[in-house]
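Subgroup meeting minutes
Present: P.N., E.W., G.H.
Scribe: E.W.

1. P.N. recapped why we're keeping a running log of single-chain structure predictions: easier to compare across weeks, and new members can see raw inputs and outputs side by side.
2. G.H. added today's entry (169 aa).
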Amino acid sequence: MGHNINFNEKTGKHSFFSVKEKAWHGLGQIVQDYPNSAAALQFAGLDFEVYKRPNIHILDNGNEIISTSSFYTYRPDTNAVLGDRLGKDYEVVQNADAFGFFDAIVDGDGIQYETAGALGKGEKIFITAKLPGYIKVGNDDMVEKYLFLTTSHDGLPNISASTFRSGKH
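Output recorded in log:
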């Protein structure tokens, strides 16, 4: 398929949502109005928590050793392991907190969540949000402002945010 959008077998839905536009590869949920961050989490299937637990090593004699330096992350709603070679200092950033980061940037005022989703088993999430206002370019070109955020639960670089501009109005 090539899209790598997470399919949650328990809910029977792909973890992606889009406002008004046809969803990515025709998958996910299309909504008509811009949701708040809590609803965006639900529409995109990102309303799950992630836990970090120590790895257990099985010795040749069958005994188990609980690691103090090697950890894994998993999501209890599907029991999917998201990352399995994590150090003790790795900290999970919950999806709700990643969305909260966006809300805090503009005090939640006028931010419009346009797309969000999860890739793989849910180890990577992404969010696109339109910010209030425009940037004027030249005499009459008005350009929309967007934020794009990605985060991961697999031990690879955690939160990354960038801005981009789109469209002429």
